Amino acid sequence: MKCVKCGKKAVINLPYASKAYCHSCFTKYYEKRVKKTIMKHKMFNKKDLIGVGVSGGKDSIDLMYVLHRLGYNLVAITIDEGIKGYRNETIPFVKKLCKQLKIPLHIYSFKKELGKTLDEVVKKKKRHACSYCGVFRRHLLNKAARELGCDYLAVGHNLDDEAQTILMNFFHSELDRMARSGAVTGVVKNNLFVPRVKPLREISEKENVVYALLKGLEYDDIECPYVKDSLRADVRKTINFLENKHPGIKIGLLHSFDKMLPFLKENFGKEQKLKKCKSCGEITSGETCKVCDFLKEVK
After folding, report:
1. pLDDT tens across 45-59, in order?
2. For residues 147 and 49, what is the distance between their CA atoms, to the nearest angstrom?
3. Which CATH superfamily hosts domain 41-272?
4. Any idea where the domains of the chain sit in the sequence?
5. Other Cβ atoms closer than 10 A to 125
6. Three-class SS of residue 243?
7. How far apart are alpha carbons 185 and 205 in whole angstroms?
């Protein structure tokens, strides 16, 4: 198979785009698409300080690397959930790349900030581990970005993640949550919230793997031990089956969602009356925030 740009031997085939690329042309194509996504959604500019949520997996490692190549001002934020045999294996990859690129790294842990590791929470769980982890991680990422003075928080959500999330929210009829998602998340503007952006949302998981390999980026491909029994795992299997049979399903789903997003924001994204959590002082729509509710639940 030959590269559609230069005719050299291709290293990757993209059925959904009906294109194949060689080493050089693919890395240029990848970086151009990330830049295009940033510009299209007016995510941030070169004057902004961008906090990058980096876990040590391929997506976040790629994100930090490509944003650095594009010349953005970055600070890395890593959340240590306290998952034995998982997060302690991925953090060294983050430290290595941050040192190589000379990007400041700040690590926030569940244990230090919330008093419990995720492993300890799961022992007393009343719901799936991902439910707790998602709430706690979002809370700490936002807190870290705010304390570090970041203008935006960039996360490594890829096309696969976005397609899965769209379907999961649809299955649960969570239209208000769908209204808060998109390239730039949230509908509420508040000094305590750092806008979250997704520069890799149109890049597939496969493309992230290949980009990391071609750029010699080291990452950990261990899967979180708690994800296997989640709804996301089942949705991922289903949508991957459809994508293999009908290339373009994922990107089509994302583009359709983006077209519907203005309607969702108008009808389901109305700003709620916010107040400060009675327990921790964070902004919430209720008397107490979800983080405090969950911590109380597992005491």
Report:
1. 999 999 999 999 999
2. 12
3. HUPs (3.40.50.620)
4. 41-272
5. 15
6. helix
7. 21
